[in-house]
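Dear Dr. H.,

I hope your travels went smoothly. While you were away I took the liberty of generating a structure for the chain from your last submission, since the lab meeting agenda had it listed for discussion. I wanted you to have the full record in hand beforehand rather than looking at slides cold. The sequence, exactly as received, is reproduced here:
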Amino acid sequence: MVLFLTLLVAGIALITIGAGVDGMLHLTSAGVLLLIADLLYLAARSVWRSPRRPAR
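The corresponding predicted structure, in token form, is as follows:
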């Protein structure tokens, strides 16, 4: 969960800096790609942790 939150904060920071500074479109696109990777990581993690055993 720490990795997810770290990637989320880093992506939002890159988007904010890239949008605020003129000519930093590459930072914005890197932030968007990082957020997409973060969402894919979250989806994969939820699939891996799907309950396959009955609850106790």
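Two observations you may find useful: Residues 25-48 form the longest helix (24 residues). The mean pLDDT is 85.

With kind regards,
E. W.
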